Amino acid sequence: MAKKTIADVEVKDKKVFIRVDFNVPLDETGKIVDDRRIEMAIPTIESVLNRGGSVILASHLGRPKDAPDPKYTMQPTAVRLSELLKKPVAFATDTVGSDAKSKVAALKNGDILVLENLRFQPGEKNGDESFANELAAFADIYVNDAFGTCHRTDASMYAVPKAFGSKPKVCGFLVEKEIKYLSNAISNPQRPFIAIIGGKKVSDKILVIKNLLGICDKVLIGGAMAYTFNIARGENVGDSFIEPDKVDLAKELLSIAGNKLELPVDTHVSNKFSADGEKKIVKSGTIETGWQGLDIGPETSQIYAKIIKEAQTVVWNGPMGVCEIPPFDEGTKKIAQAIVDSKAISIIGGGDSAAAIQLLGFADKVSHVSTGGGASLEMLEGKKFESVAVLDEK
C-alpha cells in the first residue's frame, strides 16, 4: 500500500486535520494511565508544526453513548500533549459546535487544537456525511494517524477524508509504520516466518489463524484457546476455559494445518483461578476435573523458544497464559524473552502482548509494537482497510 504521507505534502500556512488515536486508558479520577498513544502521534504533529502549519487533532475516547459525557472528555489528552510538546495546546469544548469553529478560525501557524471527543456526536459512529462535511471544512489537509481505528469506517476515518475531495488525504508516520510492518509481514515475509497466537478465545482469532496457516511456516498456539483445540483432539482439559461451540472449527483448523500448527505439550494447572491455589505441571490434554490450565508449561516454552530462535520473522498476538496472575505469567515472559533473543524481525500485536512487552521493558528491543489490537488482528487476517484505501496514492 504505497500511500502518500504527511512528509509528501506542503503544509506551510495550511490547517491540517489529523485523526489520531488518543483512546488512552484512564483511572477512576480521569488521570491518564498510559500515554503511549499520545507519544506515538508526536512525530506527525511535529512534522506539521516544524514546517509552518497548524494542527487540529480529533480522536475518540472510551465508549460514550453518542452524547457528551464528562468521564470521556478529551481534555486530559490535550493537557498531556502540551506537557510532552512543552508548548500550549488549545482545547475545544465541542466537536463541530461554536467553540470548535471559533478556535479553528483563530488558529495561527504553529498552533495546536484538540477537539472534544468525536463519539459525543452520533454522526461519528454512523459515518454521517453532514457531520463529516463539517469536520472537513475545518482544514486544508487530512491525515490518518489512528491505526487503532483503521479497521473501522467511522465518519472521521472514512467519510471525512472522502469529504476532502481533491484536497490532500495522507497517512501519518505511525500508520505508515504499522502498514509497513504488518502488511510486509503478510505479503513478503523473511523466512522462516513464525506466528505466535495466544489469548482466551479461538473465536477472536479463527480468521487470523486460518490466514496465517496459509502464509507461515509455523503457528504456535498458547493461552486458553489451546484447550478448545485439546477438546477437538478428544483430550481432557478438566475445568479449563473452552468454547464448546468452536470445537468443530478447531477440528477444521487442525485438519488443514498439517504440521504447521504447534500446540502446548505441557500445561501449568491450578485448582483455583488465583495465585494461592495448588499448582502443578501436567501433560497437555490430561487435566483432571477440579483443575484448570492457566499457562503453557516449561517444556512448551522451551520448544517454542527453539522454533523462535530459527525464525527470520515473528508475529506475536496474545499472551500464553493468565499473565496478570503470577506465576502464570511465566510462559508469556519466556516467549517475550525468546523473541528478544532472536535475530528475527519481530512484530508485536496490540492489546495484552503489547502490554506484556512494555511491562517487561522490551519495547525497544523488538522491531515494532503495534498500537492497534483489533486493527492489527484484521490486518493479519488479510482484510482491506477502507479508511486507508481512500487516502492518496504515492
Summary?
Helix 8 packs parallel to helix 10 (247-257) and helix 11 (298-310) packs parallel to helix 12 (330-341). The mean pLDDT is 93.
Could you outline the blueprint of secondary structure elements for this entry?
Blueprint: E1 15-20, H1 36-50, E2 54-58, H2 75-85, E3 90-91, H3 98-105, E4 112-114, H4 122-126, H5 129-136, E5 141-145, H6 155-163, E6 169-171, H7 173-187, E7 193-197, H8 202-213, E8 218-221, H9 225-232, E9 236-237, H10 247-257, E10 261-262, E11 266-270, E12 279-283, E13 286-287, E14 292-296, H11 298-310, E15 313-317, H12 330-341, E16 345-348, H13 352-359, E17 368-369, H14 373-380, H15 386-389
Parallel strand pairs: 1-2, 1-5, 2-4, 3-4, 5-6, 7-8, 7-15, 8-10, 9-13, 15-16, 16-17
Antiparallel strand pairs: 11-12, 11-14
Helix pairs in contact: 5-6, 8-10, 9-10, 11-12
Q: Given the structure, what is the number of helices?
A: 15
Coarse morphology: elongated
Q: What is the CATH superfamily classification of the largest domain?
A: Phosphoglycerate kinase, N-terminal domain
Strand content: 15-25%
Query: What would the average pLDDT be, to the nearest integer?
Result: 93
**What is the CATH C level class of the largest domain, in words?**
Alpha Beta
CATH fold type of the largest domain: Rossmann fold
Taken together, the total number of domains comes to 2
Q: Sheet bearing the most strands, described? A: 6 strands, parallel
The rounded Rg comes to 23 Å
Structural class: alpha/beta
Count of β-strands: 17
Based on the coordinates given, report the CATH architecture of the largest domain. Answer: 3-Layer(aba) Sandwich
Physical arrangement of strands within the biggest beta sheet:
3-4-2-1-5-6
Helix content: 25-40%
Runs with pLDDT <50, length 5+? none
Span between N and C termini?
9 Å
